[in-house]
UniProtKB/TrEMBL annotation:
Organism encoding this protein: Candidatus Desantisbacteria bacterium CG_4_8_14_3_um_filter_40_12
The protein's name: Uncharacterized protein
First and last residue of the signal peptide: none
Domain HD: from-to ranges: 474-596
Transmembrane segments: 6-24, 33-52, 64-86, 98-115, 135-156, 168-189, 195-215, 230-249, 261-278
Keywords: Membrane, Transmembrane, Transmembrane helix
Length: 640
């Protein structure tokens, strides 16, 4: 048990020492000194206990290390009180510098106690102060410091919660209890209560957690440690353990092997191999710790940028933008504003109430819009001094306005709320800037696509109107087929691009009838063989028309092959179902159903029920059963 305890003390000493020196070197303001004192006090305490518990330690040296340990403990609780006071901004304690008195009084108790030769006695696992009134008074003083620290943590919990969140606050309070356990455990042996002095081991995980809070949430303004420094600290610590371990075990081996060098040499080689492997593994862990967050941020930006090539509409783009921001930013509020009716309005948001979403609107001349256009940079609440501007931030609960800039235009604005824990750092702002660049390209691309689509549909509308002027009985037929096709496509979970292609192909599926004579199209009776052969040419004619306009391949195939059959007996190519594209198979069903339920020159419209029965009879013959069932299910007529 003592050997394990000793090793833990050594590890704790090295950790506290490195952490204290790191804070001393890296800290930007005076608040670091309280934590440095806490760490150095704990390092003295741990190093004293490490040597104190070394087997075979002479009494004089043991007493020396015990005094070192007690001196270190004298600065732990005052340092902790000082740190908590700075953390919550307790002005009364800080203004009058009452924490100085905590250090002075603690040192006043400890120095006489450690200088006296009659103040210690051997006790089971080590050397402890002899019970006397002075020790009791000092213990009462320590308990007072503990009570004051716990009170400060409780009273300042609201301010701390804003920085680190509820979960981390609970851990911080739990650490305060661990500190109480540390002190109480190390008091009990003085009063002849035989418990193992493990209080300082209990507090070690808490200091580790506290260090994590400081680095993650910048409780103390420090610059982040570099990866090579982490490598150096790790290598130094492992080297220290290696040398100490060899010397430590060598002492016992020489006793057993009568001063032979062979056991020491063999042991040294084994430990070198073990520590080399351990060092490699620890370096991998360091790489993961340092680069995990940056890697996740880079991956999210890459995924978003990659998705832009297949994002065709603004609605999908804004949804993708919002999802990416939610994935990366630790905030409850995000909103995206784009231009609607000559104003910037919130189109996508999370965390905002409906009243704010509908009421928030920026004109082109709005101060925030003007600043974002002129500066072309992120606008931070912390950098705004104008009270009018700050009110706009507060109204939307935003702390960041991110411009989406393309050349000299501002197609969009992103608002971002406070972080759940801590503040946005330079890395966050750099990532947002890069995200804004990708988002601006996405907005331009979707704008161009929507403009192209609009012009395309205007051309399609003219073509359809030309066809309907020639075939009066098909007026509105193409739009109805498009609606039915869309219904089937949604039931089949087609992508946005597939639905767009399906819509165009459905609207234009009969465009080839422009090449069919008006007399044949409007003939009220049955068609002759020659007339029917002329009608059968319209899919091929339509395919040639859209081919010359450079429509997507799916649109071309949907128009050309919409009269093919499942059994391969259709026209113009006689393709079987497996060789017929999905869009064409959907239009086959939609076109047939719409034709059956509409009046034609040669017959009256069928009822919907009769048309449904006809589709069922045509499954696996004329129509793809999969498409028919999707249509029936979408219209609520399926028995599945």
């Amino acid at each position: 048990m003592e050997y394990i305890y000793n090793l833990l003390q050594l590890f704790a000493f090295f950790f506290y020492l490195c952490l204290g020196l790191f804070m001393l070197q890296r800290g930007k303001d005076k608040s670091k000194y309280s934590f440095v004192i806490l760490c150095l006090g704990l390092s003295l305490f741990s190093f004293g206990h490490f040597n104190l518990f070394t087997p075979g330690m002479p009494e004089s040296m043991a007493l020396f290390w015990m005094r070192i340990s007690i001196i270190g403990l004298a600065f732990v609780l005052p340092g902790y009180l000082h740190f908590v006071a700075l953390l919550i901004g307790y002005t009364s304690l800080l203004k009058h510098k009452l924490y100085y008195w905590a250090y002075i009084v603690s040192a006043g108790f400890i120095l006489p106690l450690t200088l006296s030769h009659k103040s210690f006695q051997v006790y089971n696992w080590g050397y402890y102060p002899i019970f006397n009134p002075m020790v009791s008074i000092y213990h009462l003083f320590l308990l007072f410091l503990l009570a004051e620290t716990v009170y400060l943590l409780y009273s300042g919990s609201k301010k701390i919660r804003e920085k680190i969140g509820d979960k981390m606050l609970r851990y911080l309070m739990l650490g305060g209890i661990c500190t109480v356990i540390l002190v109480v455990f190390n008091m009990l042996p003085v009063y002849k209560i035989k418990v193992y002095p493990a209080g300082n081991i209990i507090v070690f995980p808490y200091v580790l957690f506290l260090s994590y809070l400081i680095l993650k949430y910048q409780l103390i303004p420090i610059t982040i440690i570099k990866k090579r420094e982490a490598y150096s600290i790790t290598a130094g610590f492992l080297m220290f353990l290696l040398v100490y371990g060899v010397l430590y075990i060598d002492y016992f081996l020489k006793i057993s092997w009568h001063n032979s060098l062979w056991p020491t040499i063999i042991l040294g080689l084994i430990m070198v191999m073990v520590f080399k492997s351990l060092h490699s593994r620890i370096n991998k862990i360091i790489d993961y710790i340092f680069f995990r967050k940056a890697y996740m941020h880079t991956l999210a930006l890459q995924d978003f940028t990659r998705s832009l090539s297949s994002t065709l509409t603004r609605e999908v783009l804004l949804h993708s933008m919002l999802g990416t921001l939610e994935r990366i930013l630790d905030t409850n509020i995000i909103f995206i504003m784009t231009i609607e009716d000559k104003h910037y309005k919130i189109i996508q948001s999370v965390g905002l109430d409906e009243k704010t979403v509908h009421s928030m609107s920026f004109s082109y001349s709005h101060p925030i819009v003007t600043i974002l256009k002129e500066e072309k940079a992120i606008l931070l609440l912390n950098e705004v001094r104008d009270e009018n501007l700050r009110r706009y931030f507060e109204k939307t609960q935003a702390v960041i306005f991110l411009p989406i800039i393309y050349q000299d235009s501002l197609p969009g604005i992103i608002g971002i709320g406070r972080k759940r824990c801590g503040d946005y750092n330079d890395n966050d702002l750099l990532w947002l800037s890069n995200f804004s660049l990708s988002a601006s390209l996405g907005m331009v691309n979707t704008g161009l696509y929507e403009e192209r689509t609009r012009h395309l549909y205007e051309g399609i509308k003219i073509l359809v109107q030309t066809l309907e002027a020639k075939d009066t009985y098909t007026h509105g037929h193409c739009e109805r087929v498009a609606d039915i096709s869309h219904l089937i496509g949604c039931q089949l979970n087609l992508s946005e691009t597939q639905l767009e292609d399906l819509k165009m192909a459905s609207i234009l599926h009969d465009i080839g009838k422009i090449g069919v004579s008006k007399q044949v199209l409007n003939k009220p009776g049955f068609l002759t063989q020659k007339e029917f052969m002329e009608i059968k040419e319209h899919p091929s004619i339509g395919g040639k028309i859209v081919e010359s306009i450079c429509f997507p391949a799916d649109v071309h195939n949907g128009i050309k092959l919409h009269h093919e059959r499942f059994d391969g007996k259709g026209y113009p190519e006689g393709r079987e179902n497996k060789d017929c594209p999905l869009i064409a198979r959907i239009i086959q069903v939609a076109d047939a159903y719409e034709a059956m339920t509409s009046n034609r020159p040669y017959r009256q419209a069928m009822t919907q029920e009769a048309a449904m029965e006809e589709l069922n009879r045509g499954k696996a013959k004329q129509f793809d059963p999969y498409i028919v069932e999707a249509f029936l299910k979408a219209t609520g007529e399926s028995d599945l």
